[in-house]
Structure formats: C-alpha cells, structure tokens
Design goal:
With about 725 residues, this protein is α/β, with parallel strands linked by helices. Helices cover about 30% and strands about 25% of the residues. The structure holds adenosine-5'-diphosphate and zinc ion. Adenosine-5'-diphosphate binds next to helix 7.
C-alpha cells in the first residue's frame, strides 16, 4: 500500500505541467495533503499547478525545500488516472508533464467558485397575467425546483429577458446567487427510449449485459449509417447511468453538432455536459470540476475529453471510431481510440467502438477475438443502401477543364425533375489545386513549405494548406513576370460550383466546405437549411461525409473516386474505401432509395471493385492479408521519427547518425528506414526529414526507441518528434 496522506511538513513528490523531467519535492502544507491532491506550488518566482504523486525523495537539504502553497478545492486525482497518464506517457513516449497538461486543460481550476444569478419559482403570484409571463412560470413549474440562468429561462420560455426581470420585481420569480460551477441536471435513463428493432434490441441487450459485468471489455458496433448504432449505444449509456457510473461519448470534432445534443436530450430529458473547442472557458472549468466530483453523468466531447478526471467511469463510446481526427497530430501524438481502450482497461469500464466502416485495426482486433463484435445489418425503417456503380471516365466524352461526365449530368437532371437533392462530392477545398504560368510553366508554391498554393477564389487569395499562409492572387507570374498568363489547373469544390451552375443555371446550388464559413455556427445553420430541402445540388468536401442527415438526398456523384488511391500512404486503400462508403451512405436515408455514381479511370482497381460490390468482408480480408505480408500495422509495429530544423544539412546529419547508431533497435529485431526527406520536405520554413522504424508486433518497441533516441543530444534549433503508430506520413 502506498502512503495515502501526508502530514504537514512531510515531503511529497509533485508533478507539475512544466517542462521538467522530474518530480519536485515540497513540504506538505498545514492540514496535510492527500495523495493525488491538486496543489499550487512555488517554482522559482512563479506559482504553478501540480499533483501530489507520492512521497518525496528527500535527496535535497530539507531546510531548503519549499512548502506547498495550498491544496486546491477540487477532487484529488484518482489512482487510476495517475496510472492512465503514466501508461499513456510510456506508450506515446511523451513526458509525463505533457500528459498532465492534457489532463488539466481548464482555466482557473484552483479559483474559488465565483457566483452568478440564477432564477427559480418565487412565492408570489403576479398581479397581472400576460401570455409571456405565463410561459415563464410554466417553464419553471415544468422543471419543479430547478433554477436557470436568465438567458436559459428566457430562451426556454421564448420571451425577452425583461419579462423575467419583471416577474422578479413582483416576487413571482426568485433571483438568487449560486456558484457558477453548478452540477449538471440529472439525466433520466428511462425518459425517452425508442422501440428497438429485433437487431437493435439484441445489440442493446448484449451491451447492457457487458456493462453489468463491471469489467473491462470492448465491443465493435458495426452497421451502415442509419442502422441505429446511436440508438443502440444510447441504451448502453442508459444502463451505465442506472448503475450510477459515468459515461463518455466521443465524437469527431466535426460531428459535435447541436443535432447530437438534441438527440441526447430527447433520450434522457436533459442535456449532457459538453467538452470540445466550441465550449467557453467558464463552461470547460465547470465541466472539469463536475466530472471530477461526479456531478456530470454523461459527457459528450472531442478526443481530449478522455483526459477528464472521471470519478467513476463505466462506459466510453467512440463514435465513427475510424475517423482520422481521433489521432492528435501535434503536441502529444496520441490516438484517442487506442487511449480509450487503455483507460477503460484500467478503470474496469466498457468501450463501444461504433462505425459503418471500422478501421482495419479494430476489424483485426475483432477478428482475433480481442473485441466483441455486434452488427446491425440493415438501415432502420424502409431505407436501403444506395445502388452503387462506376462511371468509366475513359469512355466519357469530356472537354478539358470540365469534370462532370455526361452520365452524371443526366442523373442530376433527373433528380432535379423529381424535386430530389444531389450531392457532388470532391474532397478538395478551394478553387483549383494548382496555379500554373502558361508562359514559363512555373507553379506557384508556398514560401515556407514545399507545397503548392491553392487558389481560393471566394477569398480572392492563394492559400497553403500546410501552414495556412495566404497571399493575394498575383497578376504577373512571380517567376517570369509574364502578364495574365496564370491559370487554374485541376478542380476544387469552388470550381465545381462554377461548372455545376453553368450546367444547371436554374438549380439552387450550394458549396459546402469548412473554409467558406466564418464560424461553426454559420456552417451548422447553412447545413440545416440545406437539409430542409433549400438546395437542389450540394457540392461538398468530406465535411458532408460525416454524420449530417439530408433526407431529400437521393444521388451522390463522386467526381474523382481515384483521388485517395494515389497516395503512398499505408492506409490509402482503407481511407478511400471508408470515405466512398460514407459518402454513398448519404444518399437515400429517408424513404426514397439512393444511388451513388463513382467517376473513375480505374474501374478495375481492387478497392473500387470492393466499394461497388459492397463486399466489405472481402475488402477487409484482402487488405488484412496484404498488411500481414508486409508486416505493417496492425500486424506489425511502426514508429515515425520526424526531425526538423532550419538548415537541411543539420537535419540530415542527425538523421544519418540515427540510422547508423541503431543498436538498441537492432537488439529487438527492429529495422530503421531512412532518413528521407518527408513528403512535404519543408513546412513553415523548417526542413523535415523522416525515419521509419518497423518491428514485430510483440517487440518492446517503446523501450528500444527511448534508448535509441536518448543517444542523441538535440542542439539548437533541431527537433525530434516520435510518432507511435503513425497515421499520416506527410
Ligand atoms: P446510425 O448511428 O447507425 O447512423 P441512428 O441511430 O442515427 O443510426 O439512426 C438513424 C435514424 O433512424 C435516426 O433518425 C434514428 O432516430 C432513427 N432510428 C433508428 N432506430 C430507431 C428506432 N428503433 N425507432 C425509431 N427511430 C429509430
Ligand atoms: Zn506553407
């Protein structure tokens, strides 16, 4: 048993979120410190946040050791959270202080809770009854003794805030001070459950039984979009709440829409706690604190919600588990899907990985029996999967600079006639990917990256999709200074908008691309309007592939189904397969069956054929077979090393030295490839070099990597990032 409490003056080891590679000793304050307590400690001239991690080492003059300043008024970090952070740090080769930073990303954790005004039913009757006043009082009566903020109450009653203020004067509504960090309202697991289909009911039963085991387990919940996966996992959430444990639902950031929150409210009677980049700082703090003291039962969030200080976590759902946004690509390089499994294993919690198109990793784990597998076979209700076919672009008659084949054009025209929607899909933002000088052949590139600048006609600028740098569109070629010779090459969604408008001048056309909106709210509002039928033809990037419901959509036309197949990326085939199936799944969600048409120059390509045949198992087995042969994930282990610096030579020298001194890796049978210039060899002015390490599945890779990398001192500007299980190879 480790020591759980430290009396005043006893030495404690404190982990801070500061970039130090060790624990610091402090004396416990007056009143003592619990193990795991969040504390404020002096560090040089500053006061910083830390966590009591264990007994102090005592290898420093006791008299000189400083004292903890104070213990913060938040729930101490639980033992399982310390274990989770430690193991996640070991796995991702990240310093522990960086993990603590991830776990404390809420401002003002130590502040005394500030107060705010809330409103609840008063004890007087209003002298004069108006419709607006009645609405306010009805809301308050409906919710019994609950209190609301002014805005919440006015919004729910659909009246102006002056009406509420008027009622306060009359004593019909009471205005009281309450701590800002209020507990979240209780959710009712039996509030709004739906009648489930036999398939769904069987799935929900299985998940409920697993939860009641009180043990760790992971289930892959697979089913086409619209088959009711969400309905099924919400039943698991309900069971978790009944057991008095907390539940977490992770969604890709982009899918964190009001739509989902409304669904949760319809199911449980109240809104859940939210944790994502759109949440205000005050609300983040409230969420963090309430999760820690068990006053938030259900959290809906983006990947970093996994690092919240749950008190009694029973269930984690990872929706769209294959989504690449679960991998954090800067700072701490972690995959939230994998970390979810780790956290659940430590907590004795259940994991549900939901997807229509699982990652090969999860598919393989299910195949090997490490995960259970549940499948919802058909779409809920009358809708069926769309009919998919290829348009062979080799035989279509198309002028240069145009991308909509006659066959696709005809299919769209038919939909317009019937008053149905079409989606034209192209996974490329902007107007044109290349701006070429017709006089000298120069292609305009970014000044800081080895990447072409992409024209964004809507913004009237060129933009680098690597670093975000923009510049105005020049009139003369920056290379040969010829005038008016610059021309757009290749299509982006903005350009497709032009072509479609030319082809269908009377149709209502909308281009959906994340960069066309000033705010997430504006984007949501527009998507909502489109879904209601305000548009005939939607042109979109992968933004539309994710989760939005377009009931009137019956045709999906994919402009370039080959686009994803060109990459040298290990997962190119998998990604294309997933994306194409998701996009196709947008068609025919309501009563009308859908059709998906894929424009391709290689209709005989294995991936395209598997997509068309809808034969998923065949695709996964073939893909699994290839990866097994190549000894790559999920059948082997990989780590990417990215070196960067301001001079190319220095970076390469380090890369070469690392390749030569590979002893620690050779001892575990691992191989090093490289150094090679990264596919994008310069980003933000820094030169980038990659090495790739491959090892067998069972090899102790992290340990060897740590020893290997530890041999090199990074001088000056040089940086090294180690990416375990890399997802992208740019
Ligand atoms: P998925 O998560 O697999 O895409 P959803 O759970 O979102 O599927 O279900 C698709 C649609 O069908 C939703 O509007 C959902 O409310 C509805 N639906 C699914 N199952 C049922 C059910 N048993 N009863 C009523 N509506 C359902
Ligand atoms: Zn750039």
């Amino acid at each position: 048993m480790s020591q759980e409490f430290f009396h005043e003056g006893e030495l404690v080891a404190v982990l801070t979120a500061q970039p130090l590679d060790r624990f610091l000793d402090y004396k416990a304050t007056e009143g003592g410190c619990h193990l795991g307590a969040f504390v404020e400690v002096p560090l040089g001239p500053r006061k910083v946040l830390g966590v009591v991690w264990g007994p102090g080492k005592g290898d420093f003059d006791y008299k000189k050791v400083r004292s903890v300043i104070r213990v913060l008024d938040v729930a101490p970090m639980r033992d399982e959270m310390r274990q989770f952070l430690t193991r996640a740090a070991d796995y991702t080769l990240t310093p522990l202080h960086a993990m603590l930073r991830l776990a404390t990303r809420a401002p003002g954790l130590g502040d005394a809770p500030s107060m705010r005004k809330v409103y609840r039913l008063g004890d007087q009757e209003p002298d004069r009854v108006t419709t607006a006043r009645t609405k306010v009082l009805e809301v308050l009566r409906d919710y019994g003794g609950l209190s609301f903020t002014l805005k919440e109450l006015a919004d729910m009653a659909g009246v102006g805030s002056s009406v509420v203020k008027g009622l306060v004067k009359l004593g019909a509504v009471a205005e009281v001070d309450a701590p800002r960090d209020m507990p979240y309202p209780m959710l009712d697991p039996d509030y709004g459950g739906k009648e489930l289909s036999p398939d769904q009911a069987a799935g929900a039963d299985a998940l409920r039984a697993d939860l009641r085991s009180d043990k760790y387990g992971t289930t892959l919940l697979k089913g086409v979009t619209g088959s009711g996966k969400t309905e099924v996992y919400l039943e698991a959430v309900a069971e978790c709440l009944r057991m008095g444990r907390q539940a977490l639902v992770l969604l890709p950031e982009i899918a964190l829409s009001g739509e989902f929150i409304n669904r949760v409210e319809a199911r449980f009677g109240m809104k859940p706690a939210e944790w994502h980049s759109g949440v205000t700082m005050t609300e983040r703090r409230r969420c963090w604190r309430m999760v820690g003291q068990g006053d938030a039962q259900l959290i809906v969030g983006a990947r970093s919600a996994l690092f919240l200080p749950f008190q009694n976590l029973g269930l984690i759902v990872v929706d769209e588990e294959h989504d690449t946004s679960y991998k954090q690509e800067d700072g701490v390089l972690y995959n939230a899907r994998d970390m979810t499994v780790l956290r659940a294993a430590i907590n004795g919690a259940q994991v549900v990985l939901a997807s229509a198109t699982p990652s090969l990793e999860s598919w393989a784990n299910a195949d090997q029996g490490k995960y259970k597998r549940l499948e919802l076979k058909s779409r809920y209700g009358p809708a069926i999967m769309p009919k998919m076919s290829a348009i062979d672009m080799r035989v279509e008659d198309l002028p240069g600079g145009k991308w909509v084949s006659p066959a696709l054009r005809q299919a769209i025209a038919q939909r317009i006639e019937k008053g149905e929607q079409s989606l034209v899909f192209l996974n490329r933002r902007g107007y044109a990917p290349i701006t070429l000088c017709r006089a000298c052949g120069h292609q305009i590139g970014c000044d800081h990256c080895d990447a072409r600048m992409v024209e964004h006609r809507f913004l009237k600028r060129l933009m680098c999709h690597q670093c975000g740098e923009t510049k105005p569109m020049p009139n003369v070629c920056p290379h040969c200074e010829a005038e008016d010779k610059l021309s757009a090459v290749g299509p982006g969604v903005e350009r497709m908008g032009e072509e479609i408008t030319d082809l269908f001048p009377d149709a209502r056309v909308a281009v959906l691309s994340s960069d066309l909106y000033g705010s997430a709210r504006a984007m949501k509002a527009h998507i909502e309007e489109i879904a209601q039928g305000g548009t005939d033809i939607i042109i979109g990037t992968q933004l539309v592939a994710k989760g939005h419901n377009f009931p009137k959509l019956t045709l999906v036309g994919v402009i370039d189904a080959d686009l994803g197949l060109q990459g040298s990326d290990l997962r190119a085939a998998e990604r294309t397969f997933q994306l194409m199936r998701q996009v196709a799944g947008r068609a025919g969600r309501a009563e009308t069956p859908g059709e998906a048409l894929l424009q391709t120059y290689q209709p005989e390509h294995g991936v395209i054929r598997a997509i068309l045949a809808g034969d998923e198992e065949a695709f996964w087995s073939a893909e699994a077979h290839e990866r097994k042969d190549a000894g790559v994930p999920p059948y082997g282990r990989m780590a990417g090393i990215i070196l960067s610096g301001t001079t190319a030579e220095e970076v390469f020298d380090l890369g070469n030295a690392m390749a030569r001194q590979d002893g620690p890796l050779r001892r575990i049978g691992a191989q090093v490839f490289g150094p090679a210039p990264a596919p994008i060899a310069r980003v933000r002015g820094r030169h980038r070099v990659r090495l790739l390490v491959k090892a067998e599945k069972s090899a102790p890779l992290q340990q060897a990597l740590a020893q290997w990398a530890g041999q090199f001192k990074l001088r000056g500007e040089l940086r090294m990032a180690i990416d375990i299980d890399p997802q992208s190879f740019y």
